Amino acid sequence: MGIKDKIIVANTAGSTLSVIDLKNNTRLSDVHLEEGFGPYCLALDNIYNRIIVTGLYDDSIIFIDKKSFNIMGKAYVGCSPSSIALDNIGLAYVCNADSDCISIIDMKNMRTIGQIEAGYMPQSIDYNIYKNILAVANTNSNDVWIMDGHKYNVIKKIDAYHYPCKVKFSKDGNYLYIGCFFSHCDNIGCITVIDLKTFDIDSKIETGGLACEILQMEDDSSVLSISTEKNRLEIIDILNERMTSTILTGNLPRGIAVNYECMYAYITNSGDDTVSIVDLANGVRVTDIKVGREPNGIIFLSC
């Protein structure tokens, strides 16, 4: 781990970003944003060296310099921007959960250049750099849309059955992981794995609850999933289609990030305003760090 590595946390209720030094696991400072902005989701733009922050209550996104943390620009999008994905040519795509649309952002000029229709309550979006496609989880219409990354037409609508809330492409680009929950069952969810060659369901892996965040490990054989209801991090063996272990977090975990070596995971806990640091190799929670009010989004930043 680098001596200047940090994690950045979006505190939605407090309208701040907390900066945590990973050398000493201490909270360095807070970046204060406009009151009522509601920072929710974070994305790291490595093309222009910025952090992009969605404003859940301001219907906008802001661009922050990743070294100085100064605000560089702002673009208005749709209502309740809940998720963001970046392609490899300088465009960003923002899910607007209450507008049923996707905003297209020119990252160089920091402005909105278009909108795409989505399903009902688009909650999550991801971009596949190998196949140039987008995946959008539409929670209230119970489907996932696969869209062409150039023409933005819908290639395939996948019936998710169980309220999809998270989409994540595998690192090799061949699979799509969909985090779902069952409305008729308490504390039960699943990760549905889609084979992108055929768009068929490859497997369904039961989780302990709503898989609100999914993050693939470096070995491509396992993913990390956050179970908000059970206050835990779950490690899922994709190849053998089973949950292998769980690690308790703080109250109401929401976001997750890992360092480059995938040795540690960092989980935001919106219920107790902390970030849990988890040693993945030993399967233990190391410590909790106090941050701002209602932390959600989180990214790892190597300086």
What would the keywords be for this entry?
303 residues; single chain; globular; 0% helix; mainly beta
Mean of the pLDDT scores?
93
CA-CA gap between termini = 11 Å
Largest sheet: 4 strands, antiparallel
Major sheet: arrangement of strands: 3-2-1-28
Rg, Å, rounded: 18 Å
Q: Which residues sit in consecutive blocks of at least 5 with pLDDT less than 50?
A: none
Per DSSP E runs of 2 or more residues, the count of β-strands stands at 28
Q: Tell me, what's the shape? A: globular
- Please count the helical segments: 0
Strand residue content = over 45%
Helical content class: under 10%
Q: H/E element string?
A: EEEEEEEEEEEEEEEEEEEEEEEEEEEE
- Structural class, please? mainly beta
Descriptive report:
The structure is a single chain. The radius of gyration is 18 Å and the shape is globular. The protein is mostly beta strands and 303 residues long. The strands form seven sheets. A four-stranded antiparallel sheet has the order 3-2-1-28, with no helix packed on it. Strands 4-5-6-7 form a four-stranded antiparallel sheet, with no helix packed on it. A four-stranded antiparallel sheet has the order 8-9-10-11, with no helix packed on it. 0% of the residues lie in helices and 59% in strands. It has strands at residues 6-11, 16-21, 26-32, 39-45, 50-55, 60-65, 71-76, 81-86, 91-96, 101-106, 111-117, 122-128, 133-138, 143-148, 154-159, 164-169, 175-181, 189-195, 200-207, 211-216, 222-227, 232-237, 242-248, 253-258, 264-269, 274-279, 284-290, 295-301.
